[in-house]
């Protein structure tokens, strides 16, 4: 059995941030031309020591991860920038580099596309790039940003709104995974991007579980980042409003039943949280994820291990079977992402 | 030992919503005059069967709750309405009624004030009402709404900002509890008030734990609603950024250490969640709360009990001592709220 | 001959403001469900002493009014609230209660519907409710709010604009009366709702008399509240611009000729004003109205009568015939509202 | 006894609109320089046949008016234009020309200043010009625009607000009259300036009669244009809210009592309206005004007289004494404006 | 050979600014009626001494100009005023007067229409007036304002945008000249209209030379005011980006090549500048223009000549042939404007 | 004599754009820490072939430039980004790197600071960084961006406004040069940054020459980029408004006289333009500048030279003396920037 980290981000060669800085400086006046990246540059990026005590590849080796799903760093996607073509240019360049990385390490990495979502545009404008990545590069899914306004005070439609249906339809048609993950935050003092991720996941899961999306798209595969924000922990609160009260029946589907149709990664960085997640949503809905290297790559002074050392937590769950453990560590991901593992 | 529900809301006599509807209709043109409420009307309100299978008092009796802290229903506080005097009028009327309720059942209820917070005003404009409630009525704390804009797209300063310091100072001076709880939401499709509560608690705890508020006000007593939003579940994520990384030391205090100085109620409606909360923040920081009757007063079809049947969950925690159990059920609250219990 | 008060508002049972307060608190999150109102509650409301020295029914008896047209209290219609569905919910509930009131006192009351008008919506969105009230409940007219923005700084199209034509068409088709009456005011310090009524009536009459609406809809029956705002008093000013000046002919219809096609109620609270009104627009265009109980139900210290004691004023008009007097007191209303009286 | 028309506007030489057009074109880039106007040009202006069947002076002669108070044409004052210096330039030029007109016909004309009011500025910025006109030119009053935003959706403070107190103070100090008259309207389709005059007068009188201005400034002399908008006609409505209701005493002064401290001109163009005005506010508060030549200078086809033929209406009032008649026609104005007549 | 001044503005009779002031005061409430202008008034206007040391006609005679193209004074066109119908009314009146002027001096003047451009409208709304002027009056071109927002902070599409194509098409169809010239500026402190002209010309030429307009409309005749703003002086800068760099070919047409398809007037007021212009764009693209009388009609203390004494500068150019000189002075204009000269 | 290029920009090591991309992604959440840059990285940057046919140092050698003034690339300064601390962080990092570059090549490079200007802040907030760069690093001047809003529709005060006086004062106090140069443009389709440079220079020179800045600060040294935008070419236009007209004297200083107190670089890329510049402003006010490598580093197909081959143009000026030539090529810069050359 192969261990699959379902939530990880690309190694970033120098050209990508330089490109971002450049187009944000000229705002499109120099055109979209992006410099080619050599495989050497990519290898260098995969071995650069930056966020973690060792390079990207070394992290995987040490943790025993066989396969990773790679997507763009979400907080760099700048979905709220203007003019909107800059968003398209940047994300296409990032996806191109991910495709090159997957080609360079074909056994190890599979692509998850960033989408060129922008605040006031119909979601259909992001679909050609999804299609390009899946059909040309063989990507297995895409990030979905529930807040392309990037917390600027305006608000996107909730995830149950018809606004999103063309995307859900396309995901089903292509049979790929939609991975919920917001981007940056324009209110960094109050709610920096890392916190905004959590709030947006909470809001996204709520929106999906209070709507009929999951009934309307039975084949839809939605993976929620970071263990689903607050929802598994707060389930009782939302579940309580979908059972009958004082004899009044409630027409809708129970919140918990919908919740258990979504998938969640284990990017939670503590055993207690992972335990709660698996108990609440079930082993069949959990996918090992460590987002490695990343925010969890610092060393917990108490354990001497990085926070993103998550496999031992999964191995330590006493209340699941071995098959369930394997499913969490790789089986579920293999099935969802169509990876032969 | 007395069991204390630290998070509950007033029984609402007909006059209060009628008053709200009235001032929102005339927008202040008829002046502020509010009708007196008789004790009979209050008794009726405490026995009305509405959200729960039985009346307010009966809920307490059945659950075995001895004492409750009563505050206004937060989602009715309309902090974002204009002109701002309407906010003051309403909250003062609500606090008056709570005071009358506490006087009617002096053993059973203690008051927690609503504050007349409004979006663009300095927090000092809300402090006279806090002082009035504590000094005239003997209230033991107040609600703090981290988002007086009520999710209208504008954003209040984060909880670590100097904006809030006069309130923290006043809370220390009066030796009463600040209870974090947001109000309504102007974006009900995407993020209805009940969900907004959770996101605002997440944001508020983050703001407190990333700032020096708790060092600047060592005596400050902050109680966070609903088990702290997402934070106890997501602790690893935020903790990981406050330990040294790659040899670079970090100047700040560790996130977890600050988190463990805040207090949390157990309004979580599931045993798993309460277990996680107590493990993460410690028994000394947890206060039994059930917000009864309230959102959790519907009956879980599986157990036949209401979701807000929380005392058994606390009794069932295997990893805490009996003293810790008592502390959670009442001792911590008695100490914090200065209740002789 | 029956005396008909053409301008009066429903008796308000406790449930209606409570419902308003509730939906404004949860902003739709709890759904639209409105509690049923018992006939006993309505009877109680019709006998409650509140604005007037006696209850609603007693006022009518004392004044000698046989029949009243009942509409929602306009200043409570909250046309400018968001989300717009709240406006629909509230007005439909209010209309339902009026229908129940008319059914309870079938000889005495006839319904006039509130409309779910909202600022940025086409007027067609308000028409299904009008149709429901007329066809299902037998209502005889509806309120028309010329300012659904409720004085928030944005402005609705003038009453002569094509925007309103679908409403005019529907009124003609259903053969019911459109009763001009604005709602609340978002600028209560400068222009509280009661003053805004007057200014909006002035503006509405102007808009109708400067456009071709009355030629385009010869069968249209428009009743203007409170004696037409300022217009009958200021007629000379506006009339003077529609006669030839310095030999230049003027193409339009004379202002006064159009004015005399509209209908006006006598809710003016002084004999001088009523006298002027009847002189200016003619007895055939005046309908007795007292809006009882209401703003005029306080007692004039000089006369010892309530200001809304209007019938004696009409009886005292020396310059009209007895037939004209009867027409004002009831005949005109019976004809307009299709009431057999 | 001399007949005094208290409400009239300057004769406009070609230079004034040309100057307005010019500064609105260059927006201040050419500086403020305004061309001198010759006395011949003024004479020409006073004899030009434009709005009325004859020239300005001829109108006065024919009507038998001895003296007129001249102010700028209000709808041309452009208080809402930017940059604000343009407003100052224009109004100062207009006042200069009025001063020249008064000097040219010293027995016939007395000046009433326009003020350079602008939307967001303190009223103190308009006072130097008032002082200049009174002290240098001997003007007897000024126009007060209650809406310097000119109906653009933003709203000035109500007339009872402290915002206006420096102006009231200055009027008392200089012992001159404040003449309420709004300017243009930025919403001409819905509410053209001529209609806006009426609504703003209604609102202004309301604001004065609901506040303590008249008690705070007992010497204040306020003259309201066009017979006070809607208020005298609608008095009952507002008066009814300032008498005790259901035993509850009311603290304020009665609306009617305050109303009768204000002064009103008779620019109403119909006998019925003038009759109502005099009845409601009393002869001591009424000043003959015809705004001649002006909006009322067209010929009523029924009478063959211009609408502004108002003296016969006053002469025809049967319920006043001869002294009262003289007071209305000139005595009140002479006293208010300190004119020896 | 006749000397043709291709850039000049109408003589302005008093009625035109008075009309502007009037409609800006009543905002359309009085309707559009504009007073007729007599030929005497026009003659007076052509002989009035205002900006120049002598009258309009005398200026031409003294300078030796045979023919002038007359358009409205651009800074008076008020394209950004509301309601938009005022813009239409004003420009149509101005065009009417120009037509009358051309009829009065048929050998001397040819008309160039102002267009009723307004900020948010499609350019098609301005085309009927263009057509009217060309077909009814025989005008030879029109002004094009690249910034109908008049520098109010919002921005029109660049001149290469499809927004403008219907205008280009119509110009080709009618075979008339489009003369780039902006109107007033709403930011007069920072960028008064006269400076805004220059910046807008710079921006307009840039927009045309960086787009395919000139390829898409080979017959299009665009005349740029004031020697093209900054572009001829700054040509190197923009040209340098349209030649290949470091071996990368560039797909577009060279900036300079497009520049040399546009036409430029010589309204530059200095010999050095005119010399640079002719050198950079070629004699075939230059049209004598002096905008006389106008901004350049003051006397240079050094030369004793007015700044707009431009013909000697053209005569003094040593590097062009006599034929080229004649082309600049009149031949090019005759060809472009279809004038038999 | 040393040849000094007074207008050039830093060599950019990879870390700088990466830093920009990073802080724009996390919006400050990761703090300001910027990576150190090695001297090797700087050397690499100075030898990288990018915009020009050869590296930065090679360009200088080939052209014969001895000394360059280095400032940050203006279009990358992102003055309009939020939160404002990002602007400070970026510019300080850029200045640090320039200081390191000057230290690395002490004979060749002198620093010109970027300023952390931001739209709504007083200019005083940018002065500490100016002081730091001059006092700690020995910089000789700073860039001044007349439009820190970066063309987003809002407008900074004109250069003659008191807003800028603290900066002018500080420049005099430190005896360093203010170099006018705007940054990026938020309207890239209509006016990309490179064009915006020109328009802002035009506007800035206008603002300086129409105000009393140059009289108020006689010691102020202002250098205008790119030959002063449009102004030298358009001088007649602006000069003509500052001489007496029709006998009316003009109070101000003549435009041309002020213009000739400013300094201008020769970054114009064509001999004709440079010739015009020197003629108009005089050799004493011109400083050789080529901004090399930069926008002019592409090869003109006609000459086979890069457009920024400017020294031959200066050498080719026939109408200046040799001393003047030397002054332009280096002497003026040496004096202004206090460089011993």
TrEMBL record, chains A, B, C, D, E, F:
Q: Which GO terms describe its molecular function?
A: 4-oxalmesaconate hydratase activity; carboxy-lyase activity; hydrolase activity
State the name under which the record lists this protein.
4-oxalmesaconate hydratase
Q: What PANTHER family does the record tag this protein with? A: 2-AMINO-3-CARBOXYLMUCONATE-6-SEMIALDEHYDE DECARBOXYLASE, ISO-OROTATE DECARBOXYLASE (EUROFUNG)
One GO process term, biological-process aspect: secondary metabolic process
Q: Which GO terms describe its cellular component?
A: cytoplasm
Keywords attached to this Swiss-Prot or TrEMBL record, sorted alphabetically, are: Lyase, Plasmid
Domain Amidohydrolase-related as annotated: residue spans = 4-338
Q: Does the keyword Lyase apply?
A: yes
Q: Name one Pfam family in it.
A: Amidohydro_2
Key word Lyase present: yes
User: Could you tell me the EC number(s) of this protein?
Assistant: 4.2.1.83
